[in-house]
Amino acid sequence: MVNKSRPVKTTKTTRINRSSGGDFFSSKTGRLDLSDGSTFGGKMPDWQTGSFTGEVVFNTGMSGYVESITDPSYSNQILVFTYPLIGNYGVSLASAESGKIQVAGVIMSELAAHPSHTKPEISLAEWLKSQNIPVLYDVDTRSLTKHLRVKGTMAGSIGTTQAKPKDMKLESKIISITEPEIYNPKSKKKVILVDCGAKDNILRSLCAMKLQVKKVPYDYDYTKENYDGVVLSNGPGDPTDYAPTIAVARKALKIGKPVFGICLGNQVLGLAAGGKTFKLKFGHRGHNQPCMESDTERCYITSQNHGYALDAKSLPKNWDVWFRNLNDDSVEGIKHVSKPFFSVQFHPEACPGPTDTNFLFEKFRKLL
């Protein structure tokens, strides 16, 4: 199936942008091939060669593209931005949520030719080029997003020649540090941050509360150490792939000290408690997901980035569904009825997105 609104055809090389150095870069015809046989045409910079494969997902956020493409939860994914203009304020590396670009590729409708900001460090195109991240622009992203909403997320390949579905193999990745790191070492209260691909603002949020934070690898057993609480971070992929993380979290629940899960951490906590997870059709990725707290029926607008969810019916007794998504009624948070264990599927640390739920960090701190 070929997207007729953006036919793939040979065109002359065009010049679309000017770098900060004053030199133009030229574009060439490119394409996105999906594993269901669909094709969406676009353009790519002439420096881009080869083909690039990943799971094709979409994000509905109107801003925050720097934070999104550096979020480790997007590892191995080709990110489609639904907002029509991307790159308009350039790139400020201070906004990054990790030390590098994490996405496998970027797809957009229009790549801003002249970024404007008070503190621009580099253009989006130049930044992507510096890390060899493929970009496909001038794409009918509305049509592509509607296709993914109907068919579901799937593997895809960015390139100049047709890619075959059999070649679009996706390999799961776990993003984690290899050795523990300690922050605020003189603080009295000690928190374990389990790194499954933690965004930097989770660490910043914990440090801002004057907590000592020991950031540990995803498979690190911290249960024999002296600590006051545990934070299970976000991260990419299928939560059931994190067997060591789940096993250690199960031991931590028996100890009884506070446990706070975020995004993937919500799924890990649910699995450790005895629940089950499933893959959503196209996931939740954006900054305007409405969630309702079950106890108060209060609604919060949340930032989200996940493709899996907990099965509410699989939760064992003494565990309640704490938040639900008002769009599809999926589980957005769980908590134990009497012990200090709770988690949310959304991102209370934001970056990007609303900070409506950052009070959850204070809730965790008070439990320590």
Features:
Rossmann fold; globular; disordered N terminus; eight-stranded mixed sheet; 17% helix; 368 residues; alpha/beta; 2 domains
Kindly provide the radius of gyration, computed on alpha-carbon positions and rounded to a whole number of angstroms.
21 Å
Strand order of the largest sheet: 11-13-12-14-15-20-19-18-16-17
**Main sheet properties:** 10 strands, mixed
| Morphology call | globular
Overall SS class: alpha/beta
**How many strand segments?**
20
Q: Unreliable stretches, pLDDT < 50, 5 or more residues?
A: 1-23
Name of the CATH first level of the largest domain: Alpha Beta
How many structural domains are formed by the residues? 2
Give the DSSP E fraction (strand runs of 2 or more residues): 25-35%
CATH homologous superfamily title of the largest domain = Class I glutamine amidotransferase (GATase) domain
Sequence of secondary-structure elements: EEEEHEEEEHEHEEEHEEHEHEEEEEH
Span of the ends, CA to CA: 56 Å
Task: Please give a structural write-up.
It is a single chain. With 368 residues, this protein is of the alpha/beta class. The protein has 2 domains: 14-167, Carbamoyl-phosphate synthase small subunit, N-terminal domain (Glucose Oxidase, domain 1, 3-Layer(bba) Sandwich), CATH 3.50.30.20; 181-367, Class I glutamine amidotransferase (GATase) domain (Rossmann fold, 3-Layer(aba) Sandwich), CATH 3.40.50.880. The chain has 7 helices and 20 strands. The protein has helices at 65-69, 124-130, 141-151, 200-208, 243-255, 264-273, 359-367, and strands at residues 14-18, 24-34, 39-45, 52-59, 77-81, 85-86, 105-107, 110-111, 135-136, 154-159, 181-183, 190-195, 212-217, 229-232, 259-262, 277-293, 299-310, 319-325, 331-336, 341-344. Strands 11-13-12-14-15-20-19-18-16-17 form a 10-stranded mixed beta sheet, sandwiched between helices. Strands 1, 2, 3, 4, 5, 7, 9 and 10 form an 8-stranded mixed beta sheet that branches. Helix 5 (243-255) packs across helix 6. Residues 1-23 have low confidence and may be disordered.
